[in-house]
Amino acid sequence: MKETYLGVSVSRYNYEQIIEQLEHRFERHEQSTIIAVNPEKVMTAQRDPVVKRLINEATFQIADGIGMILASKIKGGAIRSRVTGVEMMERLLRFAEEEAHPIYLYGAKADVLQKASAEIARRHPNIHIAGQTDGYEQDEEALVERIHSSGARILFIALGSPKQELWIERNLSRLPNVLLFQGVGGSFDVLSGTVKRAPKTFQKLGLEWLYRLMTNPSRWRRQLNLPKFLLRVVTEKKK
After folding, report:
1. pTM of the predicted model over 0.70
2. Quick check: is 136 in a domain?
3. What is the pLDDT of residues 153-184, one digit of tens each?
4. What is the CATH number of the domain that holds 160?
5. What are its E.C. numbers (predicted)?
6. Which segments of the chain have a pLDDT < 50?
7. Residue 220 lies in a domain
C-alpha cells in the first residue's frame, strides 16, 4: 500500500495500521525501518540518488507533512492523514511499553538525550529503556555491540537525515535482534523540551511548517520546497 511522488515511495498506512503491521512483523521476527517523508526530502531525493534509495528501501515511508496530503489529493491517491515522525515515535513508545519490547535511544547531545529519556520514563513508567548513547559516540563498533548486548528490540536514532538512515543501512544486518529502526531526527529535542512543537491548532490544520517559519524566518528557503514540490506533482500528473 504505497503511492509514488517524483519517484519516491510513500506509505498509505496511518498510525494504527502501521502498529498492526509491526505486530505481525515482530511475531515473524522480521526487521522493519521507518523513515519520514516530506516535500523537502522528496526534493532532495531528486538531486541525491542515495537519499531516494534510502527512502524507497524503507519498510514504511510515513507521510510527514501537509504537502504529502495535498500531493495525494492532486493525484487522486488515498493518503488523507499525516503520520509525523514525533507522533509515530510516541505511538511506538506506547507499543513498546504495552508489549514489553526494550528500546534503545541513540543520538542528540548528552543533556538533550538525558532529558528525553527522563520524559519517556515519566510518560511510560513500565517501559524498559535498555540503553542510551548520545550522538557523539565515535566508536561505531563498540556502539553496535552495546546495542546488541542490551537486548533492545526497538532502536530510535536521532542523527538527522540522511545520516541516521545511512547508519541504519550499515548496521541493520549486524543487529538481528533489533526488529524496528526509526530515524527520528529532532524528536529527542521535542521530548526533552529543548524545541517546542507548534500549538495544537497549527498541528490540526497541518500548518506546523507555517509556525516554524513564523518563529524562525531564516527557514524561508527551505519552505520553498513545498510549492516547488506541488508544482512538480501537478506537472507530472498532466504528463
Report:
1. yes
2. yes
3. 999 999 999 999 999 999 999 999 999 999 99
4. 3.40.50
5. 2.4.1.187
6. none
7. no
